[in-house]
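Aggregate trends can hide what the representation actually does to any particular protein. For completeness, the protein is quoted in full, as a sequence line and a line of structure tokens.
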Amino acid sequence: MGDIVEARALSEDGTVLETFRLEPVETDGWPDTTAEQKLYIWEWGKEGEEYGVYCDPSEGVGLDNSVVGVIKKATPWHPDEQVAEWVSNKVAPHDLWAYVYCLCHLYTVKGPNGQWREPLAAVEVNINAGDAVQTEMLKRGYTHFYRETDMTQIGDTGPEFRKRPRAIRDRIGWRTDVRTRPKMISLFRKMVRDGALLVRSPELVNEMATLQYNLDKQRIEAAGGKHDDRVMGAAVLLTCWYDPEIYGTVPTAFIEQRNYEAELEKAPAYMGDKSIGRGSRHVEKIHQVSDSRELYAEL
């Protein structure tokens, strides 16, 4: 048993907005306990890192699981890494905000420039529970949410665009639909396969093993009687972070660094005046050519 951890949510001027008590749970090990309503923390927040908090809410008590988790964003020295997870189907939508709000403040750390860095809150808002989470957090001053932008409108400067100045949408929260769900699953699978995401939760690993293609719905989802809420929650945050990069030209910092190191290993070592590369070419000897000063010296 460890010590009780008190997590305080502070405003910019230092006012205490909310206080949460994290009480350690005594257990013999993961197989001997249930993950229901327990917050698993594999790593506390570290200064200089950047974190994101994801939330996949359920529609009510006794239905699908509500999932809240934390991922440490990749740097050149480590991949994306899951550092915390909480799951329950016994918390009402208007109580769920407290868990997201707590983790957002628990993983608010100082960045390299000394400024406080708040985690990106990626909340799925397909149902009213997601809106309730964001609304309650906004009331308490938290504003660092994922903001949706319609990328197809960027660069449109025609007369129709000038008549619709709000054609570029800017609203908070993630919406999963027939357009976004396939790329969420694809991105999650790609990052796990490539070693760009380190998964800590055994329950998340179990959910990954139950994913299958549903011919009737024409999509990948959990097998009958199983859940995929943990997978979808993590996929929401990863897509909010990396969708413009994975489908564009900029890789994650960790993958970029690994590729750079691989290129260094391929580069030949410098060998002074020795020639490297192809040697099957004829090189004529360069003859010394006299200049005009030698002609004047003979006079």
